[in-house]
Amino acid sequence: MNAAIRTTCPYCGVGCGVLAAPDGQGGMTISGDADHPANRGRLCVKGAALGETIGTKGRLTAPRVNGDEVAWDKALEMIATRFTQTIADHGPESVALYVSGQLLTEDYYVANKLMKGFIGSANIDTNSRLCMASSVAGHRRAFGSDTVPGLYEDLELADVVVLVGSNLAWCHPVLHQRLLAAKAARGTKIIVIDPRRTATCEGADLHLAIAPGADAHLFNLLLCHLADEDRLDQDFLPHVTGLAEALQAARQSTADSTGLSPDDLRRFLALWSGHERVVTVYSQGINQSDSGTDKVNAILNCHLATGRIGRPGTGPFSVTGQPNAMGGREVGGLANMLACHLDLENPDHRTAVQTFWRSPRMADKPGLKAIDLFRAVEDRRIRALWILHTNPAVSMPEADRVARAIAACDFVAVSDIWPDTDTARLAHVLLPATAWGEKDGTVTNSERMISRQRAFMPAPGQARPDWWQLAQVAQRMGFAGFDWSGPQDIFAEYVALSGVAGALGSDFDISGLAGSDYGAMEPVRWPVATKSGGRFFGDGAFHTPDGRGRMVPVAARLPSALGAETSLRLNTGRIRDQWHTMTRTGMAARLMQHLGEPYLEIHPSDALRLGLGDATLAEVFNPLGRAILRVLKSEAVQPGHPFAPMHWTGQTASSGRIDALVPGLCDPVSGQPASKSAEVTIRPYQAAWYGFAVSRKDVQPDCAYWAKATVDGGVQLELAGGEIPEDWPSWASRLFGLSGPSAVLADPALGVHRMAFFDQGRLAAALFVARSPVLLSRPHLVQALGERDATVLAGRPAADRPDPGPTVCACLNVGLNTILQAITSDGLMTVDAIGVALGAGTNCGSCRPELATLLARPNLREAAE
Ligand SMILES: Nc1nc2c(c(=O)[nH]1)N[C@H]1C(S)=C(S)[C@@H](COP(=O)(O)OP(=O)(O)OC[C@H]3O[C@@H](n4cnc5c(=O)[nH]c(N)nc54)[C@H](O)[C@@H]3O)O[C@H]1N2
Ligand SMILES: Nc1nc2c(c(=O)[nH]1)N[C@H]1C(S)=C(S)[C@@H](COP(=O)(O)OP(=O)(O)OC[C@H]3O[C@@H](n4cnc5c(=O)[nH]c(N)nc54)[C@H](O)[C@@H]3O)O[C@H]1N2
Ligand code: SF4
Ligand SMILES: [Mo]
């Protein structure tokens, strides 16, 4: 067996080291890299399931033009010609690149060089605009540069860790586990600020269910409290400007606006102000707001005023979402940045980069930010667009409008690994990219650690890396300086440019890596050229013109009032086992078991008022679009503030694209959209029938509602419709493309129809229909696929085979019923006891917060005691 290859996880910004070793049977064994400083061998469930998502079945393996496979030469020539022609006819601002925080640094570098240095326009923006832009803008206002001051270790060294607008347990699981381990070791106090009770609240000492959008008020109140209680750091304050103005603005904030009880508020203020070592971690609950930059600065103000920054166990900590969100910021991927933390609007910086690149024409003003960029596509100011490694037809606000704009654009190229994503379907030219495991490069994680992603398997068909595609087009457009032989050359050029930037005062100077062995490169944290990798700003030296940190006056405001009394404010975000638009995680059956259908988490009082029964379907709509989602009643959300996940696409559900409902309302400073507060109306979807189906073959339903999930050996489908088909057996046989069915069990008076299709005695497909949501053991039916199971139409396991229920622990495949049963019958009291008894929670640990929730169910406790 070959030795394991050391690489880095392609999902979240924690940036865990991964070992990939061939399993000798054509697959790969994936494990955590014990030597990687981010994870020390741990992986979360998404990382652990990587081996199940690297198959090449269904991949895009050759370039396509208008759907037909063509040679690379033709596709590249076509992009170069169309870009060149469009620029000649309409100027450099009429073309654009829309890229991704999942590109490798080398890919990003080439895209940025091509656009800003050679095409001469800054119309290159990235999905990081939807993600990190408010943090970037807040950092630049406060520090004079987009620098994350702290390290992961600070979460372990702190006495108080505040998680605001971050569902760390699900979105940065390994970092969350590090935090929980530190808590167990030294009693760290954890405070979660989130309008919703999330898995992250398990293990927290205090959950502040804040009024949606009220975070700036809360941190303003904190600043006032710190001043009033004489907790400001008089030694650090000389390094900071703007205290008086910031305090004056903060005085306008009132406790009422936060929606918190006086007790909770007092506890928060006391914990934060009473401990020197405080880390405030923040993420999309802060950034994705129409006043996100102000919210960031309200947080930074408190850390600046108390000097709690850049020293062990202290600091504000913006955790990055995507694996290379940080690398993209360093390389200048955003429309308003230049490479290596240099400033696009600074003539000296521009000249230095232009000289280094020997470029004919430098962009001299910021380009269009994502929302405006797609508006410009819509009104034809942009006529040629190239989208790489992102799926904007799903993930952009006003997604229907964005999809229409892409579809109507004169020329669109898309680089992806699949031929049929919602965005890829709209491309004129489709380029096959190499995927994780097939490509080489570097990424930077949330704590500025640069790690290698390494190839460990061959690319399928003609797939080529993103950097190569960009460099080939650049050369065909007649540009010099794009003839690298591999990512190592690009990295070397980037390292050299960072030296130029360093000489101009940029903190991003990795020229110390010059001449290092790219192949063998170990994870390395910058700054590396001058200091040993460490923290920033603890010494009071900032990157502003006067060298001092800036406190920013924040006039906190709440989201604008809802337009109608019947409206609700829709919160959106992530679930534990899916990654964004599911193009990779959706392939792994075990990752689909946790939550396999688009849903609406809604407070029981709202559900009652709106007439939404449990597990029925809700129609969620506003003037922008519409979605149909499964109703999940839950007291974890506040009344009037339901939550829906962002992951479902046109490929995985009939109407689950949540961004169809999200307005393109942006923060005025950062241009980041407010993705967490869409105004919507909700009513019951009047289904005449509900269905559940399993099939060994992939099928495409054409009823009003469907949601599809990969399962072991096939797919499962949730279905519903407004009209009852005349003949169920023939409807089912059309759906599955099978003749039959072989067995039918029906009670037409009750609207119950069950039918099974056997192929050589083995279950090939089955459909269960009812007038109300179909109650049956889904895992049982899935397990029956491909089996000789004549009793399958009973819909539940025979008495001698217990039903495990929905999966909680995806690694060891332990179901809810099994866990509940063990808790009550064996009297289990702790998560660890569940682990000993069933294995659940002992592998990646991602489900441990949910196990804790199960243990806390009051009726269960009684039963167990
Ligand atoms: N499993 C999984 N992990 C991921 C990803 C994924 O797709 N799946 N994506 C990665 C990426 S790119 C990103 S950016 C990160 C995002 O990581 P997070 O930001 O942690 O994730 P979200 O679920 O988007 O939002 C976090 C929380 O913000 C809360 N929130 C909403 N409104 C408010 C508010 O007004 N105030 C406060 N305080 N909180 C609010 C939501 O209820 C939600 O629980 O996750 C990364 N990790
Ligand atoms: N409502 C709502 N919307 C949101 C958010 C939210 O919280 N709520 N969060 C926002 C945030 S923070 C983010 S980061 C975005 C993420 O949104 P997207 O970036 O659109 O989501 P992904 O599914 O990660 O898209 C990545 C695409 O790249 C393809 N791909 C995979 N590997 C490769 C490769 O090696 N090369 C190339 N060229 N392509 C590849 C995948 O198949 C997929 O189509 O969503 C944003 N949208
Ligand atoms: S926490 Fe999970 S998703 Fe994030 S990098 Fe680590 S293994 Fe990957
Ligand atoms: Mo993100």
Automatic annotation (TrEMBL):
It comes from the Bacteria. Its cofactor is Mo-bis(molybdopterin guanine dinucleotide); [4Fe-4S] cluster. GO terms for cellular component: membrane; oxidoreductase complex. One of its GO terms (biological process) is cellular respiration. It holds the Pfam family Molybdopterin. PROSITE patterns: 4FE4S_MOW_BIS_MGD, MOLYBDOPTERIN_PROK_1. Residues 2-58 form the 4Fe-4S Mo/W bis-MGD-type domain. PANTHER family: NADPH-FE(3+) OXIDOREDUCTASE SUBUNIT ALPHA, RESPIRATORY NITRATE REDUCTASE. This is Molybdopterin-dependent oxidoreductase. It comes from Pseudotabrizicola algicola.
